[in-house]
Amino acid sequence: MAMPVPRDEGDLKAAGLVLPTTGPWTVDDLARLPDDGLQYELFDGMLVVSPAPLPAHQSAVSELHVLLHAGCPPDLQVFVAPLNYQPDRFTSAQPDLLVAQREHGEEHDVRRPLQLAVEVLSPSTRRKDLTVKRETYARTGVAAYWIVDPDKESIRVLELTDGAYEQVGEVTGDERLTVEHPFPVTLHPASLLRS
Prior knowledge:
By secondary structure, the chain is an alpha+beta fold. It is built from six helices and 13 strands. It has two domains: 3-50, no CATH class; 55-193, tt1808, chain A, CATH 3.90.1570. It comes from Actinocatenispora thailandica. InterPro entries: Nuclease_put_TT1808, Restrct_endonuc-II-like, Uma2.
């Protein structure tokens, strides 16, 4: 499970980093962290560090990317992590997959609300994906959120309505579900999630 990482001035200096020791973390602080294969995210100014994903997780992400890329209209673009979604100074999330307006492709980080965020659950990120990220995506206006569970071979589809997510569908195993947002695509977990 991803754990909040406290800022200890001695640890930061030993790592060659000098960051403020008081107050919440900001995206500016995040930009000074090392590129070491770990996932660094901010939620309301709290730094959360997650380990690199496992092969089964990456396989599911790859299959979903192919599916989304194939159906993506020209005004949208599909991205694979790591890419920062930074809607404010104290929030920086890295969805496993995200769909944004094409104009975002020229920016360093995506700042406007996403059309879709997709998280593939893994043992180290399950709690964060189901709680903190869900709340963050809803609060910042992400239009749709898919929660993919390779262990259950399922995909849960949520859409934002009046500031909260409502489940509009769930598909498991060999079932199929066609969703319309952010563009029409048919989900078939058996072909997407089996390694």
